[in-house]
Amino acid sequence: MGKFVLIYLAVVNLLTFGVYGWDKRRAAKGQRRISERELLLWAVAGGSIGAFFAMRRFRHKTRKKSFRLAFWAIVALQIVGIWFLVWR
What we know:
Blueprint: H1 2-28, H2 36-58, H3 65-87
Helix pairs in contact: 1-2, 2-3
């Protein structure tokens, strides 16, 4: 089970990083964007680390306060969830 979780997290974080980069590229070209909701759902699905590094690497969604607050709320909930799984 643990190996599956690690593989899942690796894949979802790589995909999340790619989706954020793709959205940034589309933004630069003036093309249709990926919704903020979908970007945040990638983080909810376990891609928070990939989202964090993509936000830093591509300087993507770093100025929009509402997005940053939602992202960090997701990260906080994930940390609390992991804490409960480990310590219960």
